[in-house]
Amino acid sequence: MKRSEINQSIREALDFLAEHRFLLPEWATWTPRMWGTHGETCREIRDNALGWDVTDFGKRNFAQEGLTLFTIRNGNPARDRKTYCEKIMFVREGQTTPIHFHWHKMEDIINRGGGDLCMKLWRADDKEGMTDAPCSFQIDGITTTVRAGEVLRLRPGQSITFEPYMYHTFWAEGGHCMAGEVSTVNDDTADNRFYEPLGRYPQIEEDEPAEFTLCNEYTF
């Protein structure tokens, strides 16, 4: 993935979030040079992988398969007592997040504005295979059941709860979508099971200077 794609994606995400009046911490727009002037006071940001995360999942086709997100808060069992995580995701129209589940994380995904947030779900078996069993879950506290692989649409304001071992993929239709995530502690280094072998973070081609620092790039 090119650094120019990352820079552009974050700029577009900032504009989209501002349009929907979703405000980020002041350090969301710090440049790499500005990060260089901070150290121990920002330890939680570094240790808990807060901030920007732009990925093509190693597929080198970001326009079709990718995601831009910002982790606002997150715990770290080895370092603190925080047991929760919050993210905001810029889900582009027609851009898909690959099929995956989490072994441990339980999460609510919320359509906070824009287009419909569309998804497909499958239950995993004890060997982590994808099953044809119906999928039951909560939408805003209401028990809902769909067929495996059926397209489910969340309109703005709606939310869904994902239990562990629930395969899911999602994308936006009818415009870009601002999708929130509220979950137990997030660990992207060890709690993602992709249906096909993929990388969580991209290999970056440095075709221009970085305008922002990603959550896995802090050096202080």
Automatic annotation (TrEMBL):
It holds the Pfam family Lyx_isomer. GO terms for molecular function: D-lyxose ketol-isomerase activity; metal ion binding. It catalyses: D-lyxose = D-xylulose. Its cofactor is Mn(2+). Transmembrane segments: none annotated. The keyword Chaperone does not apply. The keyword Isomerase applies. Keywords: Carbohydrate metabolism, Isomerase, Manganese, Metal-binding. Its EC number is 5.3.1.15. It is an enzyme of class 5 (isomerase). Belongs to the D-lyxose ketol-isomerase family. This is D-lyxose ketol-isomerase. It comes from Alistipes finegoldii.
